């Protein structure tokens, strides 16, 4: 089944509402907060500057960017009109940010008009990242800064032991909700090939240990296995119950790797 993040509107309203909440929960995780804080601390938000986020989803990261850039302007672009609607609703307290429907390959921006451009967990969901990087290059000023933060889903795990049945949900998640699980390994060479010079490359681990962080994904992947007839109702309930049991017992150990590349035009 295709990664639903390639066409979120086609995935339907239930998906949009659930994953808008899930991405907000991910951003409130202290580890994700520190990953975002770290790259935002390396950017300049000079007077009159414009910062752009591409693939903004429901605006979980955009709100962090807007708070940091304030009072300077932030424009967030997202191909899903459903996510843009959610994002506008959730960002009402920020007066320096706008959300528009646009694909990262065709931004409604002039050449060399942007100071900072951020893509947070976007390239792992596209078939070809090169046109998005080329478009970032087109709109960035000559002294502009590109930030690409993504998950290395090839290393994602929910496993506590060999043959851990709960890890089936992590593998199903990578198979069904990710387009390129190896994007992080390719990130620096893709940026170099599109005429960026990578100035900073930082890799950080994130541990998933409570219900809020991954439960919706376990429920969704187990539901899909149930709907396809791969497992029965008992195992569906068992996988979800096992995730909750470990979270309550303090033994849940989900592992994800995130990498951030910061680049300037070469
Ligand atoms: C996992 S979500 C991340 C959303 C947001 N950056 C966050 O971290 O909360 C991936 C996002 O990439 C967007 N996306 C997928 N293909 C895209 C493209 N060609 N151009 C721009 N965004 C795209 C999806 O619509 C989705 O909102």
UniProtKB/TrEMBL annotation:
Keywords: Methyltransferase, Transferase. Residues 52-148 form the Methyltransferase type domain. GO terms for molecular function: methyltransferase activity. The keyword Transferase applies. SUPFAM superfamilies: S-adenosyl-L-methionine-dependent methyltransferases. InterPro entries: Diverse_substrate_MTase, Methyltransf_11, SAM-dependent_MTases_sf. It comes from the Bacteria. The keyword Ion transport does not apply. It holds the Pfam family Methyltransf_11. Belongs to the methyltransferase superfamily. This is Methyltransferase domain-containing protein. It comes from Tritonibacter scottomollicae. The lineage of its organism: Bacteria, Pseudomonadati, Pseudomonadota, Alphaproteobacteria, Rhodobacterales.
